[in-house]
Design a protein that fits this description.
Helices cover 5% and strands 54% of the residues. It has helices spanning 2-10, 117-120, 201-204, 391-394, and strands spanning 58-62, 65-80, 88-103, 106-114, 126-136, 139-145, 151-162, 166-176, 210-220, 223-231, 249-259, 262-271, 282-295, 298-311, 317-329, 333-344, 354-370, 373-385, 399-409. A 16-stranded antiparallel beta barrel has the order 2-3-4-7-8-9-10-11-12-13-14-15-16-17-18-19. A two-stranded antiparallel sheet has the order 5-6. The radius of gyration is 20 Å and the shape is globular. 50% of the residues are buried.
């Protein structure tokens, strides 16, 4: 597997630089993290996990440049019940690299993130009951999740202090994440042991792979304000290329980080024709709070998330509520869960809206079989709730089981 080979090549690098909330980082028994800075608090795009979130990566310094690497591979078997259920073996994965340099009193960085999902998620989707959003082979995806693009992020970022408590920053990305929504689910600290997407993904954080992103922000103490322009259309079905389009959408986000263990955000934006087969624009509003508590040989992270989409054609208002949590204990064990309550109007051809629910619980055990690689064996089970009108399509008690192996790069202990 080419992606796994990349991880093995990166593994011998020394973990010399703490970037505590970079995308999808994982953790084990590494030393306590250094104090957070603007650069090391960011996850996907300029979104933030709590700065106490324990993370791991490999890195080295060369000619005053700091290089950081991180990778995650999930090998997952999905089994689902009911008339619309499906089974599949697949891999979701991503690899991050960043180069950082001090410049003119600030910090300049080049950030990249790639995924082999276009090759490892066949037929342009994987089964996920009640999931909707984007297209496959020219048709809307129903009861399935689309793969990520090969290029998940390609961005330049610069931050500069103004006095002791204030700084400004700019983020520019042909492919990146605008200031809209919480940290995207693949990189959220509270979702690290859940390989499947949230059902509310397209109501909360689906813009994490957007085109032509330009964000400016200012931070003062615990408060951060950002504004973005970007192309509102979702990525097309060619997952290997870099899409392009005009900057036709906008958003703003207010983030509060009162201490190392808490961060919260409220954001809103207007997306110009995000769905290829759906007319009109969307107005999206989100709010979220994420909490992380470090303790001996582990941590406990939780998020509470709300997202709302107003469709300008037809006037539909769809809400998605979610709570997720992961608790690590005895270094190698993780118990995780997620509860969602989501409005869906694409499950039937009639366009009728239904409020559905999903309840997930899981467990992962890490094994350190290879130097600097954490190999996690895990499983989770999801049960679903829905109105009686959907029982004919899904059965009365549909369920899904995921069994997975996860490979992650570990920092040096």
């Amino acid at each position: 597997m080419r992606f796994y080979a990349i991880l093995l090549l990166a593994a011998p690098l020394a973990a010399q630089h703490d970037m505590s909330n970079m995308p999808g980082m994982h953790h084990d028994d590494a030393a306590p993290s250094k104090p957070a800075t603007l650069a090391n608090m960011e996850a996907s795009g300029t979104s933030r996990n709590p700065s106490s979130s324990p993370m791991n990566m490999a890195g080295f310094t060369a000619k005053r440049w700091r290089f950081m690497f991180h990778g995650v591979v999930f090998l997952t078997d999905i089994q689902q019940t009911g008339p619309r259920g499906g089974d599949k073996f697949l891999s979701t994965n991503w690899f991050m690299g960043e180069a950082e340099h001090d410049l003119a009193g600030g910090v300049f960085s080049v950030r990249t993130m790639f995924s082999l999902d276009p090759a490892t998620v066949t037929n342009r989707r994987y089964p996920e009951l009640l999931q909707t959003g984007e297209t496959a082979f020219g048709k809307p995806i129903l009861d399935g999740q689309h793969p990520h693009d090969f290029v998940m992020e390609l961005a330049l970022h610069y931050s500069h202090p103004i006095g002791g408590k204030t700084s400004w920053e700019i983020y520019a990305a042909p492919v990146g994440d605008p200031a809209l929504g919480p940290v995207a689910f693949p990189h959220r600290v509270s979702a690290e042991e859940l390989p499947q997407a949230t059902l509310a993904h397209h109501l909360q954080d689906s813009t994490h792979i957007a085109e032509e992103v330009l964000t400016a922000g200012i931070t003062h103490g615990i408060v951060r304000i950002e504004a973005s322009g970007f192309h509102g259309g979702e990525p097309d079905e060619n997952r290997w290329n870099i899409d392009h389009g005009s900057i036709d959408s906008y958003s703003a986000r207010l983030t509060l980080s009162p201490n190392a263990n808490w961060t919260g955000q409220v954001s809103a934006g207007r997306l110009t024709k995000p769905e290829a087969l759906e007319p009109g624009d969307q107005v999206r509003t989100t709010a979220s709070v994420t909490w992380n508590l470090p303790y001996g040989n582990g941590h406990w992270a939780s998020s509470l998330i709300w997202g709302r989409v107003h469709k300008t054609v037809g006037g539909a208002n769809l809400n998605g509520y979610g709570f997720e949590s992961v608790a690590q204990f005895a270094r190698k064990n993780y118990v995780t869960g997620r509860v969602e309550l989501v409005d869906k109007d694409e499950l039937l051809a009639t366009g009728q809206s239904f409020r559905v629910s999903a309840y997930t619980i899981g467990y992962t055990r890490d094994f350190y079989l290879l130097p600097r690689i954490a190999t996690g064996l895990g499983a989770n089970i999801t049960t679903y709730g829905m109105p009686a009108a959907l029982h004919a399509y899904y059965g009365e008690h549909p369920a899904a089981v995921l069994i997975f192996l996860c490979f992650r790069l570990r920092s040096a202990s």
